[in-house]
UniProtKB/TrEMBL annotation:
The keyword DNA-binding applies. This is MerR family transcriptional regulator. The keyword Magnesium does not apply. Residues 16-79 form the HTH merR-type domain. InterPro entries: DNA-bd_dom_put_sf, MerR-type_HTH_dom, MerR_fam. GO terms for molecular function: DNA binding; DNA-binding transcription factor activity. The lineage of its organism: Bacteria, Bacillati, Actinomycetota, Actinomycetes, Kitasatosporales. Keywords: DNA-binding.
Length: 166
């Protein structure tokens, strides 16, 4: 099934991105990373995140872990949103702690390193594969029918029974 036909509920997105539910909720309420499949509409509704949303959540977490301010992360996420998240898996995001730069070629990374200041990078392709691997072990949901899609976790008998009961 194509990744755009699968959504992930909050707890699954948290597990794959390595964040707490409190962070997820705050980032959704403040517009940092909103669920692109289904937003929450009042109490009792479930947000549904796309695969790309979960990748962005993990990128935000990595930036926070390295000390980039939430304001600079917001700017970077807004930039990604404006470019439509195209070629995300081929991108390297670099930061000197104050600014986040998008690099799409080794030459751009090299030019940035020539500045002589300390910078760090996030190879988005690596994050992409990490999220892909994590989500393959967790449950997704078909966007069109709401059916639970069971990950490759052989120990999850409860989810298998739930799907048979429907």
């Amino acid at each position: 099934m194509a990744s755009e036909q699968i959504g992930y509920r909050g707890p699954t997105a948290c597990a794959a991105a390595g964040i707490t539910y409190r962070q997820l909720d705050y980032w959704a309420r403040t517009g940092l990373v909103e669920p692109s499949v289904r937003p929450a509409h009042g109490s009792g509704t479930q947000r549904l995140y796309s695969f790309r949303d979960v990748v962005v959540l993990k990128i935000v977490k990595r930036f926070l872990d390295t000390g980039v301010s939430l304001q600079n992360i917001r700017t970077a996420v807004q930039h990604l949103r404006e470019r439509g998240f195209r070629d995300l898996e081929r991108m390297t995001l670099m930061s000197d702690g104050a600014t986040v730069y998008e690099c799409t070629s080794p030459d751009e990374v090299h030019a940035l390193l020539q500045g002589g200041q300390g910078i760090f990078g996030i190879a988005v392709g690596v994050v992409w594969r990490d999220v892909e691997s994590a989500l393959s072990q967790l449950h997704g949901e078909r966007v069109d029918t709401g059916e639970t899609l069971i990950g490759h976790n052989p120990a999850d008998e409860l989810a298998r029974r739930r799907n048979r009961a429907v």
